[in-house]
Amino acid sequence: MNIIRPFIVIIIILTIISCANDDSRQETFNTVWQTVNETFPDSAFGGKNWESIKSTYEQNLSGITSDSEICSLINKMLFELNVSHTFIGPISEIQQKASPYMFQPGSPGFDIRILDDEVIVTRIDNPQVEKSGLQPGCELVSIDGYPVEEIISEASLMPPYNNRYKHFLQTEEVLRHLYGQPESTFQIEYEDVNGSVQSQKIIRIARENSIVLAPEIPPIYLECEWRKLENEVGYLRFNAFQPENPTEVLAALDSLSDSKGLILDLRGNNGGSTSAQQAIGGRFFADTVAAAIIGTRHNDDTLYYYGSHDTLTGPVVILVDEVSISAAEMFPAAMQSLNRATIIGAQTPGAVMGGDLIFLNDSLCLVHPIFSVKTVQGIMLEGQGVIPDIEIALNKELLSKGIDTQLEAAKDYLKDKM
Predict the structure, then answer these.
(1) Domains of the chain: which residue ranges?
(2) Is 130 helix (H, G, I), strand (E, B) or coil?
(3) What is the CATH number of domain 105-206?
(4) CATH code at 12-91
(5) How much is the pTM?
(6) How far is Cα of residue 155 from the mean position of the Cα atoms in its chain?
(7) What is the pLDDT of residues 325-355, one digit of tens each?
(8) DSSP 3-state of 68
(9) Of the candidates 145, 148, 154, 151, which has an alpha carbon nearest to the alpha carbon of residue 187?
(10) CA angle 93-98-102, nearest 5°?
(11) Which one of 35, 44, 94, 345 is most buried, counting C-beta atoms within 10 A?
(12) What is the CATH code of the structural domain delimited by 221-353+371-417?
Protein backbone atom coordinates (compact mmCIF):
# COMPACT_ATOMS: atom_id res chain seq x y z
CA MET A 1 0.00 0.00 0.00
CA ASN A 2 2.06 2.90 -1.26
CA ILE A 3 0.29 5.81 0.45
CA ILE A 4 1.09 4.70 3.99
CA ARG A 5 3.99 6.84 5.12
CA PRO A 6 6.61 5.43 7.50
CA PHE A 7 5.54 7.82 10.19
CA ILE A 8 3.07 10.63 10.69
CA VAL A 9 4.17 14.29 10.50
CA ILE A 10 7.79 13.40 9.83
CA ILE A 11 8.19 13.12 6.05
CA ILE A 12 10.47 15.86 4.73
CA ILE A 13 9.98 17.78 1.47
CA LEU A 14 12.19 20.81 0.90
CA THR A 15 10.89 23.95 -0.82
CA ILE A 16 12.96 27.12 -0.67
CA ILE A 17 10.94 30.27 -0.04
CA SER A 18 11.87 33.48 1.79
CA CYS A 19 9.47 35.77 3.64
CA ALA A 20 11.62 38.86 3.45
CA ASN A 21 9.27 40.95 1.26
CA ASP A 22 5.69 41.29 0.08
CA ASP A 23 6.21 39.04 -2.95
CA SER A 24 7.71 36.20 -0.92
CA ARG A 25 4.99 36.45 1.73
CA GLN A 26 2.42 36.14 -1.04
CA GLU A 27 4.36 33.17 -2.41
CA THR A 28 4.41 31.51 1.01
CA PHE A 29 0.68 32.06 1.39
CA ASN A 30 0.02 30.67 -2.09
CA THR A 31 2.27 27.65 -1.56
CA VAL A 32 0.50 26.71 1.66
CA TRP A 33 -2.97 27.18 0.22
CA GLN A 34 -2.16 25.30 -2.98
CA THR A 35 -0.47 22.43 -1.13
CA VAL A 36 -3.58 21.90 0.98
CA ASN A 37 -5.81 22.42 -2.05
CA GLU A 38 -4.07 19.58 -3.90
CA THR A 39 -3.53 17.09 -1.08
CA PHE A 40 -6.33 17.51 1.49
CA PRO A 41 -7.94 14.05 1.76
CA ASP A 42 -11.49 15.32 1.40
CA SER A 43 -12.06 17.01 -1.97
CA ALA A 44 -15.17 18.66 -0.49
CA PHE A 45 -13.09 20.14 2.37
CA GLY A 46 -15.67 19.08 4.92
CA GLY A 47 -18.24 21.34 3.32
CA LYS A 48 -16.01 24.43 3.62
CA ASN A 49 -15.41 26.73 0.61
CA TRP A 50 -11.62 26.60 0.43
CA GLU A 51 -11.48 29.18 -2.36
CA SER A 52 -13.59 31.62 -0.34
CA ILE A 53 -11.47 31.01 2.76
CA LYS A 54 -8.39 31.91 0.75
CA SER A 55 -9.92 35.20 -0.41
CA THR A 56 -10.91 36.12 3.13
CA TYR A 57 -7.40 35.79 4.53
CA GLU A 58 -5.42 36.84 1.46
CA GLN A 59 -6.75 40.38 1.71
CA ASN A 60 -4.94 40.74 5.07
CA LEU A 61 -1.50 39.98 3.62
CA SER A 62 -0.62 43.64 3.00
CA GLY A 63 -0.17 44.36 6.69
CA ILE A 64 2.15 41.39 7.33
CA THR A 65 5.76 42.27 8.20
CA SER A 66 7.18 39.23 10.04
CA ASP A 67 7.28 35.43 10.11
CA SER A 68 5.18 35.36 13.28
CA GLU A 69 2.48 37.42 11.61
CA ILE A 70 2.40 35.30 8.46
CA CYS A 71 2.20 32.16 10.62
CA SER A 72 -0.68 33.62 12.62
CA LEU A 73 -2.62 34.58 9.50
CA ILE A 74 -2.06 31.28 7.69
CA ASN A 75 -2.89 29.23 10.78
CA LYS A 76 -6.21 31.03 11.10
CA MET A 77 -6.91 30.03 7.51
CA LEU A 78 -5.81 26.42 8.04
CA PHE A 79 -7.74 26.06 11.28
CA GLU A 80 -10.97 26.79 9.38
CA LEU A 81 -10.73 23.17 8.22
CA ASN A 82 -10.97 21.95 11.85
CA VAL A 83 -8.69 18.94 11.42
CA SER A 84 -5.51 17.82 13.15
CA HIS A 85 -1.97 17.83 11.75
CA THR A 86 -2.54 21.21 10.09
CA PHE A 87 -0.36 24.22 11.00
CA ILE A 88 2.58 26.41 10.02
CA GLY A 89 5.31 27.48 12.43
CA PRO A 90 9.00 28.19 13.02
CA ILE A 91 11.39 25.30 12.47
CA SER A 92 13.13 26.34 15.68
CA GLU A 93 10.04 25.29 17.63
CA ILE A 94 9.87 21.72 16.31
CA GLN A 95 11.51 20.27 19.41
CA GLN A 96 10.11 22.90 21.76
CA LYS A 97 6.52 22.33 20.64
CA ALA A 98 6.75 18.61 19.89
CA SER A 99 5.57 15.98 22.33
CA PRO A 100 7.57 16.11 25.59
CA TYR A 101 6.83 12.41 26.05
CA MET A 102 8.75 11.65 22.87
CA PHE A 103 11.26 14.44 22.20
CA GLN A 104 12.59 15.79 25.52
CA PRO A 105 15.81 14.18 26.87
CA GLY A 106 15.16 14.85 30.57
CA SER A 107 12.20 13.34 32.45
CA PRO A 108 10.67 14.72 35.67
CA GLY A 109 10.19 11.18 36.94
CA PHE A 110 6.41 11.45 37.28
CA ASP A 111 3.33 11.85 35.12
CA ILE A 112 0.30 14.13 35.37
CA ARG A 113 -3.23 14.52 34.06
CA ILE A 114 -5.77 17.31 34.30
CA LEU A 115 -8.66 16.06 36.42
CA ASP A 116 -11.55 18.44 37.13
CA ASP A 117 -9.36 21.41 36.13
CA GLU A 118 -6.61 20.37 38.57
CA VAL A 119 -3.15 19.12 37.53
CA ILE A 120 -2.84 15.83 39.40
CA VAL A 121 0.15 13.52 39.73
CA THR A 122 -0.94 10.13 38.36
CA ARG A 123 2.23 8.04 38.40
CA ILE A 124 5.72 8.10 39.92
CA ASP A 125 8.45 6.63 37.73
CA ASN A 126 11.54 7.43 39.82
CA PRO A 127 12.23 6.29 43.39
CA GLN A 128 14.06 9.55 44.20
CA VAL A 129 10.93 11.53 43.34
CA GLU A 130 8.87 9.23 45.51
CA LYS A 131 11.27 9.77 48.42
CA SER A 132 10.73 13.52 48.09
CA GLY A 133 7.14 13.08 49.26
CA LEU A 134 5.44 13.58 45.91
CA GLN A 135 2.90 10.84 45.24
CA PRO A 136 -0.09 10.08 43.03
CA GLY A 137 -3.06 12.22 43.98
CA CYS A 138 -0.99 15.31 44.76
CA GLU A 139 -2.09 18.50 42.99
CA LEU A 140 0.54 20.68 41.32
CA VAL A 141 0.16 24.35 42.29
CA SER A 142 3.12 25.96 40.52
CA ILE A 143 6.23 25.11 38.49
CA ASP A 144 9.24 27.39 38.90
CA GLY A 145 6.94 30.01 40.38
CA TYR A 146 4.41 29.90 37.54
CA PRO A 147 0.89 28.98 38.71
CA VAL A 148 -0.33 25.95 36.79
CA GLU A 149 -3.55 27.83 35.96
CA GLU A 150 -1.46 30.32 33.99
CA ILE A 151 0.51 27.54 32.28
CA ILE A 152 -2.71 25.85 31.19
CA SER A 153 -4.09 29.13 29.88
CA GLU A 154 -0.99 29.53 27.67
CA ALA A 155 -1.76 26.37 25.69
CA SER A 156 -2.20 27.20 21.99
CA LEU A 157 -5.49 25.66 20.96
CA MET A 158 -5.83 24.14 17.51
CA PRO A 159 -8.10 21.66 15.69
CA PRO A 160 -9.86 19.42 16.15
CA TYR A 161 -11.88 21.73 18.37
CA ASN A 162 -13.27 19.55 21.13
CA ASN A 163 -12.73 19.46 24.88
CA ARG A 164 -10.69 16.27 24.71
CA TYR A 165 -8.08 17.75 22.39
CA LYS A 166 -8.15 20.95 24.43
CA HIS A 167 -7.25 18.89 27.50
CA PHE A 168 -4.51 17.14 25.50
CA LEU A 169 -2.96 20.48 24.50
CA GLN A 170 -3.22 21.81 28.06
CA THR A 171 -1.61 18.66 29.45
CA GLU A 172 1.22 18.94 26.90
CA GLU A 173 1.79 22.58 27.94
CA VAL A 174 2.25 21.53 31.57
CA LEU A 175 4.53 18.68 30.51
CA ARG A 176 6.77 21.14 28.61
CA HIS A 177 7.48 22.84 31.94
CA LEU A 178 8.24 19.50 33.60
CA TYR A 179 10.46 17.90 30.93
CA GLY A 180 13.76 19.45 29.84
CA GLN A 181 17.50 18.86 29.82
CA PRO A 182 18.98 16.01 31.92
CA GLU A 183 20.27 17.02 35.36
CA SER A 184 18.52 20.40 35.14
CA THR A 185 16.22 21.28 38.03
CA PHE A 186 12.81 22.78 38.55
CA GLN A 187 10.87 23.78 41.64
CA ILE A 188 7.31 22.70 42.23
CA GLU A 189 4.72 23.63 44.78
CA TYR A 190 2.07 21.02 45.32
CA GLU A 191 -0.80 20.25 47.62
CA ASP A 192 -0.21 16.89 49.27
CA VAL A 193 -2.90 14.32 49.97
CA ASN A 194 -3.53 15.93 53.36
CA GLY A 195 -4.19 19.34 51.84
CA SER A 196 -0.89 20.94 52.90
CA VAL A 197 1.16 22.91 50.36
CA GLN A 198 4.69 21.58 49.95
CA SER A 199 7.70 22.78 47.94
CA GLN A 200 10.22 20.48 46.29
CA LYS A 201 13.16 20.77 43.90
CA ILE A 202 13.17 18.03 41.25
CA ILE A 203 16.19 16.95 39.19
CA ARG A 204 15.32 15.85 35.67
CA ILE A 205 16.49 12.33 34.87
CA ALA A 206 18.40 11.53 31.68
CA ARG A 207 16.32 9.39 29.36
CA GLU A 208 17.83 6.53 27.42
CA ASN A 209 16.85 4.61 24.31
CA SER A 210 16.82 7.49 21.81
CA ILE A 211 16.52 7.00 18.06
CA VAL A 212 16.79 9.35 15.08
CA LEU A 213 13.93 9.04 12.62
CA ALA A 214 15.21 11.62 10.12
CA PRO A 215 18.22 13.97 10.01
CA GLU A 216 16.03 17.07 10.18
CA ILE A 217 14.06 15.85 13.22
CA PRO A 218 15.33 15.77 16.84
CA PRO A 219 15.80 12.29 18.33
CA ILE A 220 12.86 10.69 20.07
CA TYR A 221 13.03 8.80 23.35
CA LEU A 222 11.26 5.48 23.58
CA GLU A 223 9.81 4.04 26.76
CA CYS A 224 8.67 0.45 27.05
CA GLU A 225 7.89 -1.32 30.31
CA TRP A 226 6.29 -4.69 30.87
CA ARG A 227 5.60 -6.96 33.79
CA LYS A 228 3.32 -9.70 35.06
CA LEU A 229 0.42 -8.68 37.29
CA GLU A 230 -1.61 -10.92 39.54
CA ASN A 231 -3.67 -13.74 38.01
CA GLU A 232 -1.07 -14.16 35.24
CA VAL A 233 -2.09 -10.94 33.48
CA GLY A 234 0.55 -9.29 31.32
CA TYR A 235 0.98 -5.52 31.35
CA LEU A 236 2.76 -3.50 28.64
CA ARG A 237 3.12 0.28 28.39
CA PHE A 238 4.96 2.11 25.60
CA ASN A 239 4.99 5.78 24.64
CA ALA A 240 5.20 5.66 20.83
CA PHE A 241 4.53 3.46 17.82
CA GLN A 242 8.17 3.82 16.80
CA PRO A 243 10.38 2.83 15.10
CA GLU A 244 8.91 1.16 12.01
CA ASN A 245 10.15 -2.18 13.32
CA PRO A 246 9.35 -1.84 17.06
CA THR A 247 11.68 -4.57 18.24
CA GLU A 248 11.47 -3.70 21.94
CA VAL A 249 7.66 -3.79 22.00
CA LEU A 250 7.65 -7.05 20.02
CA ALA A 251 10.18 -8.54 22.45
CA ALA A 252 7.95 -7.50 25.35
CA LEU A 253 4.98 -9.23 23.71
CA ASP A 254 7.12 -12.35 23.35
CA SER A 255 7.99 -12.16 27.05
CA LEU A 256 4.30 -11.90 27.92
CA SER A 257 3.12 -14.55 25.47
CA ASP A 258 2.23 -17.03 28.22
CA SER A 259 -0.07 -14.53 29.97
CA LYS A 260 -3.70 -15.51 30.35
CA GLY A 261 -4.73 -11.94 29.52
CA LEU A 262 -2.96 -8.80 28.38
CA ILE A 263 -3.25 -5.08 29.16
CA LEU A 264 -1.78 -2.64 26.64
CA ASP A 265 -1.46 0.78 28.27
CA LEU A 266 -1.52 3.48 25.58
CA ARG A 267 -2.34 6.35 27.93
CA GLY A 268 0.01 9.16 26.96
CA ASN A 269 1.13 7.41 23.78
CA ASN A 270 1.49 10.13 21.15
CA GLY A 271 1.37 7.92 18.06
CA GLY A 272 3.88 7.22 15.34
CA SER A 273 4.31 4.73 12.53
CA THR A 274 1.67 2.78 10.64
CA SER A 275 4.32 0.14 10.01
CA ALA A 276 4.81 -0.26 13.77
CA GLN A 277 1.05 -0.64 14.18
CA GLN A 278 1.04 -3.40 11.59
CA ALA A 279 3.95 -5.21 13.25
CA ILE A 280 2.28 -5.08 16.66
CA GLY A 281 -1.24 -5.73 15.42
CA GLY A 282 -0.13 -8.80 13.48
CA ARG A 283 0.77 -10.51 16.76
CA PHE A 284 -2.91 -10.72 17.69
CA PHE A 285 -4.21 -12.48 14.57
CA ALA A 286 -3.41 -15.84 13.02
CA ASP A 287 -4.53 -14.66 9.57
CA THR A 288 -4.18 -11.39 7.71
CA VAL A 289 -7.03 -8.96 8.50
CA ALA A 290 -8.16 -5.59 7.16
CA ALA A 291 -7.54 -3.18 10.05
CA ALA A 292 -8.41 0.32 8.77
CA ILE A 293 -9.34 2.32 5.68
CA ILE A 294 -6.84 5.00 4.68
CA GLY A 295 -8.34 7.74 2.52
CA THR A 296 -6.40 10.12 0.28
CA ARG A 297 -7.63 12.69 -2.23
CA HIS A 298 -7.76 10.15 -5.01
CA ASN A 299 -8.59 6.78 -3.48
CA ASP A 300 -9.08 4.63 -0.40
CA ASP A 301 -6.57 1.97 0.57
CA THR A 302 -6.69 -0.71 3.23
CA LEU A 303 -4.27 -1.05 6.12
CA TYR A 304 -3.70 -4.72 6.90
CA TYR A 305 -2.43 -6.53 9.96
CA TYR A 306 -0.50 -9.53 8.70
CA GLY A 307 -1.10 -12.65 10.74
CA SER A 308 1.69 -14.20 12.79
CA HIS A 309 2.61 -17.71 13.87
CA ASP A 310 3.41 -16.11 17.25
CA THR A 311 -0.24 -15.21 17.76
CA LEU A 312 -1.33 -13.97 21.18
CA THR A 313 -4.68 -15.64 21.78
CA GLY A 314 -5.84 -14.45 25.21
CA PRO A 315 -8.25 -11.58 25.98
CA VAL A 316 -6.82 -8.09 25.51
CA VAL A 317 -7.64 -4.75 27.15
CA ILE A 318 -6.27 -1.48 25.77
CA LEU A 319 -6.16 1.56 28.06
CA VAL A 320 -6.58 4.98 26.42
CA ASP A 321 -7.18 8.54 27.55
CA GLU A 322 -7.21 12.14 26.31
CA VAL A 323 -3.44 12.04 25.81
CA SER A 324 -3.60 9.03 23.44
CA ILE A 325 -3.49 10.50 19.94
CA SER A 326 -2.86 9.73 16.27
CA ALA A 327 -1.52 6.17 15.86
CA ALA A 328 -2.46 5.54 19.51
CA GLU A 329 -6.05 6.06 18.35
CA MET A 330 -5.77 4.16 15.07
CA PHE A 331 -4.50 1.00 16.75
CA PRO A 332 -7.13 0.64 19.51
CA ALA A 333 -9.88 1.61 17.04
CA ALA A 334 -8.75 -1.22 14.75
CA MET A 335 -8.52 -3.74 17.58
CA GLN A 336 -11.94 -2.67 18.85
CA SER A 337 -13.59 -2.82 15.42
CA LEU A 338 -12.19 -6.32 14.89
CA ASN A 339 -13.51 -7.46 18.29
CA ARG A 340 -9.98 -8.33 19.34
CA ALA A 341 -9.68 -5.94 22.30
CA THR A 342 -11.82 -4.21 24.85
CA ILE A 343 -11.09 -0.51 25.26
CA ILE A 344 -11.14 0.99 28.76
CA GLY A 345 -10.50 4.56 29.90
CA ALA A 346 -11.48 7.95 28.47
CA GLN A 347 -12.48 8.90 24.93
CA THR A 348 -9.50 9.96 22.84
CA PRO A 349 -9.27 13.39 21.11
CA GLY A 350 -9.68 12.28 17.49
CA ALA A 351 -6.42 13.81 16.20
CA VAL A 352 -5.95 11.11 13.58
CA MET A 353 -5.18 12.77 10.24
CA GLY A 354 -1.92 11.61 8.69
CA GLY A 355 0.34 14.52 7.81
CA ASP A 356 3.48 15.54 5.98
CA LEU A 357 6.03 18.06 7.18
CA ILE A 358 7.28 20.55 4.56
CA PHE A 359 10.17 22.96 5.12
CA LEU A 360 9.12 26.20 3.43
CA ASN A 361 12.46 27.92 3.97
CA ASP A 362 15.24 28.02 6.56
CA SER A 363 12.86 29.28 9.23
CA LEU A 364 9.31 28.04 8.54
CA CYS A 365 7.70 24.62 8.16
CA LEU A 366 4.21 23.44 7.29
CA VAL A 367 2.36 20.36 8.52
CA HIS A 368 -0.58 19.42 6.30
CA PRO A 369 -2.91 16.41 6.24
CA ILE A 370 -2.56 13.86 3.45
CA PHE A 371 -4.78 11.00 4.60
CA SER A 372 -7.77 10.28 6.81
CA VAL A 373 -8.51 7.13 8.79
CA LYS A 374 -11.71 5.13 9.08
CA THR A 375 -12.46 1.87 10.82
CA VAL A 376 -13.26 -1.11 8.61
CA GLN A 377 -16.92 -0.33 9.35
CA GLY A 378 -16.42 3.12 7.80
CA ILE A 379 -16.40 5.22 10.99
CA MET A 380 -14.24 8.34 10.59
CA LEU A 381 -11.84 8.70 13.53
CA GLU A 382 -10.87 12.37 13.02
CA GLY A 383 -12.71 14.49 15.58
CA GLN A 384 -14.41 11.48 17.18
CA GLY A 385 -11.51 9.38 18.39
CA VAL A 386 -11.96 6.08 20.18
CA ILE A 387 -14.98 5.66 22.44
CA PRO A 388 -14.11 3.13 25.16
CA ASP A 389 -16.25 0.06 25.72
CA ILE A 390 -15.91 0.84 29.42
CA GLU A 391 -15.55 4.57 30.19
CA ILE A 392 -13.95 5.33 33.51
CA ALA A 393 -12.02 8.36 34.74
CA LEU A 394 -9.05 8.57 37.06
CA ASN A 395 -9.96 9.70 40.56
CA LYS A 396 -7.78 12.05 42.61
CA GLU A 397 -8.71 10.59 45.98
CA LEU A 398 -8.26 7.00 44.85
CA LEU A 399 -4.91 7.83 43.22
CA SER A 400 -3.72 9.04 46.63
CA LYS A 401 -4.54 5.56 47.93
CA GLY A 402 -2.55 3.91 45.15
CA ILE A 403 -5.60 2.99 43.06
CA ASP A 404 -5.51 3.57 39.30
CA THR A 405 -9.22 3.15 38.50
CA GLN A 406 -8.63 2.53 34.79
CA LEU A 407 -5.99 -0.13 35.39
CA GLU A 408 -8.12 -1.76 38.09
CA ALA A 409 -11.10 -1.85 35.71
CA ALA A 410 -8.91 -3.61 33.15
CA LYS A 411 -7.76 -6.20 35.68
CA ASP A 412 -11.33 -6.80 36.85
CA TYR A 413 -12.53 -7.22 33.28
CA LEU A 414 -9.81 -9.75 32.45
CA LYS A 415 -10.42 -11.67 35.67
CA ASP A 416 -13.99 -12.30 34.53
CA LYS A 417 -12.87 -13.30 31.02
CA MET A 418 -10.07 -15.71 31.90
Answers:
(1) 12-91, 105-206, 221-353+371-417
(2) helix
(3) 2.30.42.10
(4) 3.30.750.44
(5) 0.93
(6) 15
(7) 999 999 999 999 999 999 999 999 999 999 8
(8) helix
(9) 145
(10) 140
(11) 345
(12) 3.90.226.10
